[in-house]
Amino acid sequence: MSLISLKDVSFSYEGRMVLSGVSFELSDGDYLCVVGENGAGKSTLLKGLLGLKKPSGGQILFGDGLSNSEIGCLPQQTQTQRDFPASVWEVVLSGCLNRLSFFPFYRRKERERAEQAMEYLKITGLRKHCYRNLSGGQQQRTLLARALCATSKLLILDEPVSGLDPRAQLELYELVRELNRKLHITIIMVSHDVRQALPYANKVLHLAHKQLFFGGREEYLETELGKGFLKGGE
Amino acid sequence: MKTLLEMLSYPFLVRALIVGCLVSLCASLLGTSLVLKRYSMIGDGLSHVGFAALAIAYALNLAPMSLSIPVCVIAAFFLLQLEENAKIKGDAATALLCSGALAVGVMTISLTTGMNTDVCNYMFGSILAMSPSDVELSVVLSIIVLLLYLLFYPRIFAVTFDESFAKASGTNTRLYNMVIALLTAVTIVLGMRMMGTLLISSLIVFPSLTAMRICRTFRWTVLMSALFSLSGFLVGIILSYLYSIPTGASIVVIDILLFFFFSAVEMLRERK
User: Fold this and answer.
1) I want to staple B208 with a disulfide (CB 3.0 to 4.6 A). Which of A13, A136, B32, B67 is the partner?
2) Which candidate in A46, A97, A139 is best for mutational testing of the B interface (most B CBs within 10 A)?
3) DSSP state of A38
């Protein structure tokens, strides 16, 4: 049974089609890298998966007991967050919100979950630090820990390494791989840095307003499309 | 101390103190979220709408509070709703609402009672003119606002910090934005009597901005902004009593002083 499956999904903004004919399936533990030029509809697809944007056609189905409130995401940072006075702990804990249902406050269960997520991402020591004073890499880890609180099945990452220095980029990729392997969390990642991101993935989705390719990574590297795209980045 | 006791011997001042403290608390708590969500101007927009509503209520001989609260709530929903599918952006919409409502209010007043001291009271506030029934309503409403804020605190934090994450992980962000809008609208209408249409947004903006100078966590920012707001109010009202200056204005002046003081503290700290 697949974790998530899309059937001929399309998206449009104000009647203008930006992405169409997307069909793919992911199963538990997959690591999908979404590639394509700027404006090819990558972010739109993510918004659709996260339920932030309604598809104008087709179906997005979640299986394996995944409800769409159980998706953790790492969105691109907003302006608001740069000067936000909040401690790492507060940010991470806020990822547990979807576990509260109607209870107004965080219980011990949620606190323990947040502690654990911080341990996975090795930020326990930053607990009391202020989010806005962290380095870019530390901020991303904090947000990743928050995402981990919200899900134990599917993580969606939108350009997670943009704005980070090379070393922090590498660390983040390694961390995400660890989450994928050790915790069996399915990953969907959008990245413009294909050569760095691809080696970690086992599936690739190439978009250019429509679906050009979906399949295994090895297969993708054999196609003209894959070769051309990788070269283009050089 | 003697002054304070003397002040407490006037029933109208006691009323003013009770309502003022409660409203300052509400405004500062909500203010933190509004400032961080980049909605600082919403206070201005709503208070002008409230002004128009008050003017119309007087003209039609209706109870002023019971008309202006629902009108402001509707306006607040409208403003927060705009963000998502906006042809006119939030700040432009606020500006439109501000001047539009003010024009309607002034027009109504000049057609009915004419420009008089009442208008001045609306504009710059007169906490001393509150009737006992106004006070009752204000106390009840502001306690409700405080309770709701506490009850929704984790959710308000999530929606303030990162709306799209909250929405993606299944939180009904729309609902909680509505809650924030509702609480803000009620707070503004309550505060208008004290601070006046033109000064109410300072009650929302100053304490939280001051708290953000020195605080590193959201919880402390909220708590400190409540503290700043309360102390600004108390010192302001005592000054206004001693030197017979308008209450609203003296509260704002104290807030400004606090803000500059803590900005300086922040600068010194960073230099170390």
Assistant:
1) B32
2) A97
3) T
Q: Could you report the per-residue pLDDT of B132-185, keeping only the tens digit for each?
A: 877 888 899 899 999 999 999 999 998 888 888 888 888 888 888 888 888 988
Three-state helix/strand/coil letters over A86-126: CEHHHHHHHHHHHHCCCCCCCCHHHHHHHHHHHHHCCCHHH
Sorted by where each begins, the domain ranges of chain B are 2-267
Report chain A's mean pLDDT, rounded to a whole number: 85
Can you tell me the distance from the alpha carbon of A175 to that of A31, in angstroms, rounded to the nearest whole number?
A: 13
Interface of A with B in 33-92 (CB under 8 A): 50-52, 67-73, 75, 78-81, 83-87, 89-91
User: How is domain A1-70+154-234 classified at the CATH fold level?
Assistant: Rossmann fold (3.40.50)
- CATH number for the segment(s) B2-267: 1.10.3470.10
Q: In this structure, are residues A203 and A33 in contact, taking their beta carbons and an 8 Å threshold?
A: yes
As a whole number of angstroms, the distance between CA A142 and CA A131 comes to 8
- C-beta atoms surrounding B209 within 10 Å: 22
Q: Are the Cβ atoms of A68 and B37 closer than 8 angstroms?
A: no
Residues of chain A with CATH 3.40.50.300: 1-70+154-234
pLDDT tens digits, residue range A123-143? Answer: 888 888 898 888 888 888 899
Taking CA–CA distances from B152, the nearest residue in chain A reads: A104
Give the chain B residue whose CA is nearest to the CA of A78.
B162
CA pair distance B128, B117, nearest whole angstrom: 14
Give the integer Cα–Cα distance in Å for A131 and A141: 11
Query: How many other CB atoms are found less than 10 A from the CB of residue A197?
Result: 24
pLDDT, mean of residues A93-116: 85
Q: Could you tell me the pTM of the whole model? A: 0.85
**ipTM of the shown complex:** 0.84
- Taking the Cβ of residue A97 and every Cβ of chain B, the question of whether any pair is shorter than 8 Å is answered with yes
Q: Phi-psi category of A122—alpha, beta or left, where left has phi over 0 and alpha has psi -120 to 50?
A: left
> Chain A: residue nearest B156 by CA?
A94
